[in-house]
Amino acid sequence: MITTDGQTPTDLAAELGEDIHVWRLAYDHHDGRAPLLAMLGAYLGVPASQVQVEASEHGRPALAGTQRDAFSFNWSHSHDQALIAITRGVLPGIDLERLRPHPKAVPIARRYFSPDETAALEALPADQRDRAFLELWTAKEAVLKALGRGLAFGLHRLSIAGPSDLPVLHRLDGYEAAQWQLHRLILDDAHVGTLAWRGTPRRIRQWTLAGTD
After folding, report:
1. Which residue of 137, 139, 152, 182 has the lowest C-beta tally within 10 Å?
2. Where are the domains of the chain?
3. pTM tops 0.85, yes or no
4. Segments in 100-154 forming alpha helices (H)
């Protein structure tokens, strides 16, 4: 694996520290977890076949066995692309969605989002709602994935505020929202992505693997 600027994950693993590394790569659903395991193996310095991964009670993947404390990670894929987040000391959550029409965005928001989020979405011109809806969705998913919880936790139990490029966790039932960080990922015109973690601000370093459009 090599980035578009000639670096490799193996080279960058030594620079991880408390940064959050975010990788964007081409993805084919037939590959399953193979791209993820290859990336984790590059950071661990072992073949993908030797990466030990287990799932939590709610399905969040994590390193297992003797590799358990090496680092934490999360990943997401949508259609032809995937995102992988790797760091130490916090549990990252990341979510990716391909931009597409959502004619039922407002009805879905009324059912599953908080009233303030729904009102903000309804106030937008119709041609801006698809992206705004997915920005909210990925932010919520990223937080839930960082919590290690799934959608069953309830999308209405957290609320995202702030401008499109600087989202803020306004409310999270049972948790102190001010302890959370949200970061909108700069991808391309066809994808929306968000990174979340509970803790202090961190430097985010982002790469695209060669061959990713």
Report:
1. 152
2. 9-208
3. yes
4. 105-112, 115-122, 126-147
Amino acid at 187: L
Cβ-contact 10, 42 below 8 angstroms: yes
pLDDT for 44-70, tens place per residue? 999 999 999 998 877 889 999 999 999
Burial level of 1, CB count in 10 A (0-12/13-18/19+)? middle
- Amino acid in the structure at residue 163: P
Both structure tokens of 156: 């209405």
At residue 67, the 3 state secondary structure works out as: helix
Strands of the chain (E only): list them.
20-26, 53-55, 61-63, 72-78, 81-87, 93-98, 158-161, 168-172, 180-188, 191-198, 204-208
pLDDT digits (tens, 9 = 90+) for 100-138: 988 899 999 999 899 999 999 999 998 899 999 999 999
Residue 186 phi, psi (nearest 5): -85, 110
Please, what CATH class does the domain formed by 9-208 belong to?
alpha beta
Q: Which residue, 12, 35, 20, 8, is CA-closest to 86? A: 20
- Residue 55 DSSP one-character state: E
Largest CA distance in the chain: 52
Token pair 């259609």 is found at: 79
- Measured at the CA of 140, the angle between CA 86 and CA 145, to 5 degrees, comes to 40
